[in-house]
Amino acid sequence: MNNLIIVFLFVTISFSLIYFINKYFAYNNNNNNNNNNNNSNNNSNINYTQHATPVNNNSSIAYTQGSGPINNGYITCTQESTPTSNNSSISYTQRSGPINNGYISCTQESTPINNNSSIAYTQRSGPINNGDITCTQESTPINNNSSIAYTQRSGPINNGYITCTQESTPINNNSSIAHTPRSSPINNGDIACTQESNPVNNNNINYTQISTPTNNNLTLNHCDQSPQQHSQNTTENHQSPAHQFICSSVSSLNLPQSQFHSNSSQKRKTSNSQTYSSVPSTIASTGNHSTKKRSLEYDNEIIKCDKVFSKKQKLEDEESLKRDKQIVEIERLRIEKEREERQKLQRLREIERVQKEYREREEIERIKIMEIERQIKEGLERKKLEIIQREREQMEKEERSRLQRIQKDRERAEKIRQRQETERVREQRQREIEERERQREEREREERERLERIQRDNEERERDERETSEIENLGSERLESEDKCTICLNFIDRNEMATIDCLHKFCFACIEQWSRRINTCPNCREEFYNITNYKLQYNYKVIT
Length: 544
Known about the structure:
Elements: H1 2-40, E1 44-47, E2 59-67, E3 74-81, E4 90-96, E5 104-110, E6 118-123, E7 133-139, E8 147-154, E9 161-168, E10 177-178, E11 182-183, E12 190-197, E13 210-211, H2 227-235, H3 241-248, H4 257-286, H5 289-481, E14 497-499, E15 505-507, H6 508-517, E16 530-533, E17 538-541
Parallel strand pairs: 1-2, 1-10, 2-4, 2-11, 3-9, 3-12, 4-8, 5-7, 5-9, 6-8, 11-13
Antiparallel strand pairs: 14-15, 16-17
GO molecular function, one term: zinc ion binding
Keywords: Coiled coil, Metal-binding, Zinc, Zinc-finger
Pfam families: zf-RING_2
């Protein structure tokens, strides 16, 4: 019975462990599904820019970097974004205007982004007229499943050396990132720009970094210039700045219109100021009035042509801006659609993977359960056989011991019977002897008792006779000498005379009344218990 209870407890504990293991795997699967749903349901918007704390939420972040027209100078720009731990859709835009001349070295490095995202990277640069261009773009592994639209553009740059280094460190968060750092027009100078974004822990962040102009003459470097634009800018280097700005408007798609017009107007003012400075020098060298008049008319015509050309340029810029906006919108919709399709495929693959893992776990658990059940059954069968074997051995042992005990009991009973038989014969003989002796003693005792009884009767009779005679003699003497009662002090009537144990005589009524108070003789103070009236032969028992 104890073995069966132990087996039952073992089976119960085994099934309980299997049940809790199944619950644990189901809980993990539910957590994975919830995480996938959270990754696909990011609804918050964050405008994220430099010097921000960690972002650990489900949010949408748009990142845009635009730089206004840079005329000349030596600029070193370094942009670094530290790890952002979320799974996100990142839209990164950097723009650069047309660069006329100078040496350009562009290096862009993207360090590992360890989030689940899909990345669409677009980098455009306006026309570059002349100069040496070195562009290096390196993209290290990106292991995420979010949609990232990256566009880098630079505003118009006339001349100088520009060195731009952009590095983006791992981004591991569940959000879409929009980051907008913008720089105002930089004319001349050394600029060291460092952009760092630390992790951000909230949902809505608006951050903007604006760098003020610095007035030193340096060179300027930026990134990824296409060969066609470089050839076009080389041919258009001797044209007007307004015409050069037409080419740069292609790369400035997402900038505000007011900023676009301010940049174009600044560009035209710069070119016009250079043209006006060259014309008066020619007039000063001639020295005659007709030449001055022709130069003034020529200047007026140039001004009119510039106005007409500026109007045409403005219209063309607006049309180009509209076309660029349409292209950007179409590209954005296409990227969004591709991202949604990738997310859908990713979710389907994830669901299939989870289902496959769940089926595999179920199969493994089923195999484990079957193995455990088989082991339990084998253990039960083995224990059952062991129990049956032990019971059989126990029964055989008990049977042998029972037979041995019966044999011993039989032998012992035979010995006891023989001993009892001899004892019975001996006792019977002893009883016969004792019976004869007892009968003899009984006869002797009866005879002795008979003789003693006869003798005792004779003695009693003789004593009674003697006492009777003595009492009669003593009574007669007392009657003769004592006729007065000591209680009432009267003479005792013969008919009322009573005697107590001490043989004193009193009136019967007096001694009876006296005995009710106290049972001592009034004469000798001895106790008495009987009052005898000889006339009536009445014996009164005194109650004490």
